[in-house]
Every structure is written in C-alpha cells, then in structure tokens.
Design goal:
Layout (H helix, E strand, L loop, with lengths): L4 E3 L4 H6 L3 E3 L5 H6 L7 E4 L8 E2 L4 E4 L4 H5 L6 H8 L4 H6 L2 H5 L51 H7 L3 E6 L2 E6 H4 L18 E7 L8 E6 L10 E10 L2 E10 L6 E2 L1 H7 L6 H8 L14 H17 L6
C-alpha cells in the first residue's frame, strides 16, 4: 500500500469540498489499495457524518453509512433485500461494510485486481484480458468488446428489482437517480461504471413502497455455500391473487456487467397461473441477448434454472 493522507471531515459540506476518495467500511477500498489497483493520495473517512438511519414507514430509506448487517436484520425490510444482504460476504464483513460502499464496490474480475494484466476498467485502452483468458465467472449480458466483468453486489440486484433510487448530494444540492440507471454498461468506456459525478456523494438509498414486496426472495447460486460471489442469482417479488400472478419484479446477478432487470420475464409472468410450467416458460427468455464466452456458456441455462428456483421457493405455499 502506498502512502496517503487520511482526514475525517466533520460535515457533509466539508467532505464535498475536499478532493479525495471516500472511506466508509473500507472492505473494498482497503483491499484495492493493498493491491495497488487504487492509489488515492487523499482518503476521507466519512464515518462520523450524519448519514445513518433506517426508515420503513413508507417504503424504505437507508442512510448510506448503515451497515449491511443492520439493514438485513431490521424489521420491515423487504425479504429480497434482507436475504441478498445475508448471502453477501461473511458476517464479519457485513458488520463493517456500508450499504453505500456495497453499491459502489468494484468488480471482482481477477484481471482488474491484477495490476500486471491488461484491463480496460483499470487502464483504459490496455485491453480486456478476460476475453481470451479464464472467463468462467464473467458476464454474458451487457458486455462489450472492451469489458466482460460482472457486477459484484448482491443487494444491488434486489434493489434494482424493486425500483430503488439513490440520492446523490453535491454542493449544488441533491439529485435522485434510479439505481437501474445509475450503473453503466461498459460499451466503449468501461472505466465509467456509474453516474456519480465529481463532487457528489451517495447519501441515501430509497425503495418505493410496494406492499406485495413482502412476498419476495433472493436466490444465489455459487461454487460454495458461503463467502463466495454469485455464478447466477435472482431477486423476485410476486403479487399473487387466486393462484394467478398479477404483477412481478425480477432481476438477475452474476451474469451481467450491471444488475440486470429481467423485464421480459416479468411480462411473461403477468396473468399466468402459479405453476412450474408457467415459471419455466417465463424463464426461457431470461438469457435473451446473451453472449457467452469460452468458459461461461453454462450461465445461460443456469440463469433460467435460478429464476425458476426463486419462483418455486416464493410460491411454495400457493402451489399446494
């Protein structure tokens, strides 16, 4: 790790006035600094800023410094969000990591984290080593010739499924951005990962009220049971009445360069009976547009099966 200056601004205004890299839980930033992937000269510890709080009175609101474990265990948090958090990392890391830091975490692509290897996200124009290298964990959706790295966050998948927004604060005030539009697919500029502008800080996460989001879940498929990133995942919420699906929210993780909303699956579910056949038919379009690489073509069928599994788990009582 290279030398850096550490300060702790006392107010949000002071934090926004100082150029530097924000430190919350540090579970991602410190790792990348140790690897020389990130080498900030000035780090701003924002943990004392008034950016905490969990409000479930009308939808959900999380201060950006709330720890993942506290949100996961809070009454009134939609099950898909809670489950996605509990399936992330380890208990120790969840106790340290902030919700804002989780949403801003960088990809776990091994080539991004290895400074000896070309990576367009880390060094624009150097190339993407994963295209012809080991790419079993990489994306099949939202990719480009410049980058095929998957988005790492579990909870971002659940939040995108539930139409979450982020509040971005600058010296000029606040702007509210849908989380689905906050993340950017790589295209020709993979180094631009999100819509956070210079001088801005995420201060709050908002999830609009959705009464039937209480009927939601998150399923994560991975190589080992704990402390592992997703091969595929699915966040699902269903509005079921009289054994028929009135509305649905579905998003996928582990398969795309951003949290991937499966709107075609949602549309295919609406109005259909709660049956395994309906789920399989809807999930058949989950991987439409996929561009598999040499080692990750299995994700096409695995994604479909993951969506079906989530739907089956969520409707077990309705199908009896």
């Amino acid at each position: 790790m290279r030398p850096f200056e550490l300060t702790a601004p006392p107010t949000i205004e002071d934090a926004l006035a100082e150029p530097g890299t924000f430190l919350a839980g540090g579970t991602t930033l410190v790792d990348l600094m140790k690897l020389d992937v990130l080498t900030p000269q000035h780090v701003l510890d924002i943990n004392d800023l008034p950016l905490r709080g969990i409000d479930t009175t009308d939808g959900l609101r999380f201060g950006v410094l709330e720890r993942m474990s506290d949100i996961a265990e809070h009454p009134g948090v939609y099950p898909a969000i809670s489950r996605a958090l509990l399936l992330s990392a380890s208990q120790q890391l969840r106790n340290m990591a902030s919700i804002g830091g989780n949403l801003m975490q960088r990809t776990r692509c091994t080539y991004f984290r290895d400074v000896a290897m070309p990576c367009n996200r880390r060094n624009p124009g150097s190339g993407c080593s994963a295209l012809s290298g080991a790419n079993r964990m990489h994306a099949i959706l939202g990719t480009s010739d410049a980058c095929v790295a998957t988005h790492a966050s579990d909870v971002a998948v659940a939040l995108v499924a539930l139409d979450a927004e982020v509040v971005l604060t600058s010296a000029d005030g606040n702007r509210v951005v849908p989380l689905a539009g906050f993340y950017r697919q790589p295209g020709e500029t993979p180094e631009v990962e999100h819509d956070l502008r210079p001088g801005e800080l995420i201060t709050e996460v908002r999830v609009p009220r959705l009464d039937w989001a209480a009927n939601s879940t998150y399923v994560k498929v991975r190589d080992r049971q704990s402390y592992e990133f997703a091969l595929t995942s699915a966040a699902v919420a269903l509005d079921v009445r009289d054994s028929r699906i009135v509305d649905a929210r579905v998003a996928a993780g582990g398969v795309a360069t951003v949290p991937w909303r499966l709107t075609a699956v949602e549309e295919a579910l609406r109005g259909k009976p709660v049956t395994e056949q309906s789920f399989e038919e809807a999930a058949s379009v989950a991987a439409d547009g996929a561009k598999p690489l040499a080692h990750n073509a299995f994700k096409v069928s695995l994604l479909k099966r993951t969506v079906v599994r989530a739907l089956l788990e969520l409707t077990e009582g309705s199908r009896r």
